[in-house]
Amino acid sequence: MDDSSLQIRFLAAQAIAREAGQLMRTRFEQRDEVLKLAFKGPQDYLTATDAEVERLIAARLAQSFPEDAFFGEEGGGRFAESVWIVDPIDGTADFARGVAYFCVSIAFVHAGRTEIAAVYDPMADELFAACRGHGASLDGRPMRVSPIAAMQRAIVELGWSPRAPFERYLEVATRLNAMGAGVKRRGSGALGLAYVAAGRQDAYCELHINAWDAAAAVLLIEEAGGWTNDFLTPECLASGNRVIGCTPALREPLLAAMAA
């Protein structure tokens, strides 16, 4: 795909992410009147807003790029050489509970590789964006990963989901603690990875995360000068993968911490 086509999609992804985010914010602020909460599985929240936001994004992308495939967390879709992979609300549990920590994640994937990323936090009004080969930005300003090179000075966010045994999560947390890292956990993998790209924390890792949660954010880290594992494999599209995103110097200790 030529660069001009990517740039058009890049601009569209950012605009659509902002529009979707404003819908999310409106529904969040109206949550006492409109929130309908369900569960897809243990600790796996679903709100009516997830589907509403995904429909908006899918419609906008179909209008602009009818030749591209679409796959969303809630409604599914299809994969093709050119596909948009979307998480309408990453951090649904916080959204549902009235905690202002969630985002929309939009990735454009071509030939198995993420080429465009837009992660928008509507409550902070922050847009994290990247186009492969053109760097990463936060609200239009270039962003870089932190310069931290020692685990004893690092802040590592360790995500967890019930799709991985809790005992494994504890093992990784114990190893990170023994290495001297400060370990934290919040409720959005996409924002956690975006924060690594912005230098707000030094690493994010999770034993299992779905493609739609991290397909965009891993590109943010790569374009911000960081390192990520080979996340978006063909198997990941179907069933998820582990994810590691960090400053380059923390690669080896994090691989050791995440080892089986």
Characterise the protein shown here.
This protein has 2 domains: 3-142, Fructose-1,6-Bisphosphatase, Chain A, domain 1, CATH 3.30.540; 151-257, D-Maltodextrin-Binding Protein, domain 2 (3-Layer(aba) Sandwich). It has an 8-stranded mixed beta sheet with strand order 4-3-5-6-7-8-9-10, sandwiched between helices. The N and C termini lie far apart (38 Å). The chain has helices at residues 3-29, 31-34, 48-64, 92-97, 166-178, 189-197, 211-223, 234-239, 251-257; strands spanning 37-41, 44-47, 69-72, 76-77, 82-90, 103-110, 113-121, 126-131, 136-138, 141-142, 155-159, 182-184, 203-209, 227-228, 241-246. The protein has 260 residues and is of the alpha+beta class. Helix content is 39%, strand content 29%. It has 9 helices and 15 strands. The model is unreliable at 41-45 (pLDDT under 50).
Name the strands of the widest sheet in spatial order.
4-3-5-6-7-8-9-10
Largest sheet: 8 strands, mixed
For the secondary structure, the number of strands is 15
Uncertain regions: pLDDT < 50 for 5+ in a row?
A: 41-45
Number of structurally distinct domains: 2
In helices, the fraction of residues equals: 25-40%
